[in-house]
Amino acid sequence: MKYNPVQNYINGKFVDATTDKTLDVISPLDGTRLSTVPLSSSDDLNKAVKAAKEAFPKWSKTPIKERVQVFFRYKYLLEKNLDELAALISEENGKTIGESVAEIEKCIELTEFACSLPQLVTGELLEVSKGIECRTERIPLGVVASIVPFNFPAMVPNWTIPNAIALGNCMIIKPSEKVPLTLTRIATLLKEAGLPDGVFNIVNGNSEIATAICAHPDIEAVTFVGSTKVAKIVYQTATYNFKQCLALGGAKNHLIVLPDAKPEMTAQNITASMSGCAGQRCMAASAMVAVGDVDHIINKICEEAKKVVPGKNLGAVISKQSKERIEQYITEAEQQGAKILVDGRGATVEGKENGTYVGPTVIDFVKPEMSVAKEEIFGPVISIMRTNSLEEAVAIENNNPYGNAASVFTQNGSYARFVIDKASAGMIGVNVGVPVPREPFSFGGWNESKFGSGDITGKSSIEFFTRLKKSTIKWNPEAGTNWMS
Ligand code: NAD
């Protein structure tokens, strides 16, 4: 085993969980057993919540300008340790080093936003009638929790860590049991940045501890990022227990390609979107809707896809089960009459035979009713459906139950506007394959890709992680008393 067993991080210290149940942490790159992760009990969660609750009065009363100083230092530490963090992400998640570097760069951007929060949470004040003012303040919630997925071991946790904590909350995070190592390292960086003990805590485990988080009486709010099936369970359990909850789910992102699209740029963007992070991004291109004759672009996509080589510029998928599931989708589409233009099944990497690789896969002549058209595959696979009109293409996009992202590739502004207006998704791209809004704009989908109101990052996160206190103030008796005062 390459690393020591993973421990929980409670009240500023790494501690063993109270159970001896563990899971192995396996590198998808080559099957190496990296570590073990404990399946914590509710006793462990109780300890973490107690620590967070005790840290809250002092941390929440620390002025925000002082709180964000921790994140200025944390940003510097992310920069300083970028290579080491990227190597760790790659090792436990399977993505390439380049993708892992980009993930930490995104964490830096998220932290920069948190550093700007004092400029954004100033509250409001108005003299509402003579001598009487109304004032609003943003008050932190208390103990908040985040439950995160495997596909971004650093970025998704950093969607919430800097903002929630800078806004004055104390936090519990449950990493994905598949990738717990990066967050362990992040805990040490937060401590080095000067975050007081108890403000940030990690409790490792699987669904059992996630369920305990959703029911814990001292946790005020829960964010979840993961599959739609689990997002629904978490949202229902957390809100049933009267918690504020925002649960982001899975996706099936449609890219609409028109004949006037720039072939080279379109093919490069679509290939990068479907194969980046081995297709394990909730913003990945998964379905392409070809409008009219775009064969010249499809040919170029195939050329580009063939340049994406497992183990070189394409990482591994998370597990053996994932590889099997993805390959099964491809086989089923083939059996149902779709045409496999580029086939990623059976990919192996020399010297890494225990790695779990799937090559880029382009499937043409997919029908909307096939599973590859409807379901989230979460692998480097794009399913192409053919249509004759933009209206028909948008109807296909609208019919899918998810709503994270949709993109259009065209040189025509009115076609682009049509898609922006009609697509049923929270994040739209025009000639962009992965339309992730960058800070200060917020991240969040629609429909079955998100449950709860608001978005998880950017200015929207201020709403989620604070509540408004409204004061009506009168100091001068001469203001008098009437029914409005
Ligand atoms: P997952 O839903 O299997 O697991 C996510 C988290 O939930 C993990 O921490 C896991 O331990 C926990 N969990 C699992 N079962 C649970 C249960 N029954 N009750 C409570 N918690 C449970 O997701 P994953 O496989 O880790 O991640 C991939 C999924 O995440 C994909 O569907 C992807 O689209 C989605 N995702 C969405 C976004 C977004 O912004 N919408 C971002 C990243 C990933």
Task: Please give a quick description of this structure.
One of its GO terms (molecular function) is methylmalonate-semialdehyde dehydrogenase (acylating, NAD) activity. With 485 residues, the protein is an alpha/beta fold.
Tell me what you see in this structure.
- The chain has two domains: 8-250 and 444-470, 3-Layer(aba) Sandwich (Aldehyde Dehydrogenase, Chain A, domain 1), CATH 3.40.605.10; 253-401 and 405-430, Aldehyde Dehydrogenase, Chain A, domain 2 (3-Layer(aba) Sandwich), CATH 3.40.309.10.
- The protein is built from 16 helices and 20 strands.
- It has helices spanning 42-61, 64-80, 82-93, 97-115, 117-120, 155-166, 181-192, 207-215, 228-240, 263-275, 295-306, 320-335, 371-374, 390-399, 413-422, 458-465; strands spanning 8-10, 13-15, 22-26, 33-38, 124-129, 132-140, 143-147, 170-174, 200-202, 221-225, 244-248, 253-257, 285-291, 339-342, 361-364, 381-387, 405-409, 427-430, 450-451, 466-474.
- The strands form five sheets. A seven-stranded mixed sheet has the order 14-15-16-13-12-17-18, sandwiched between helices.
- α10 (263-275) links the parallel β12 (253-257) and β13 (285-291).
- α2 packs antiparallel against α4 (97-115), α3 (82-93) crosses α4 and α10 (263-275) crosses α11 (295-306).
- The radius of gyration is 24 Å and the shape is globular.
- The protein starts with 7 loop residues before the first strand and ends in an 11-residue tail after the last strand.
- The model has no long low-confidence stretch (mean pLDDT 97).
- The site of nicotinamide-adenine-dinucleotide has 29 residues, from α8 and α9.
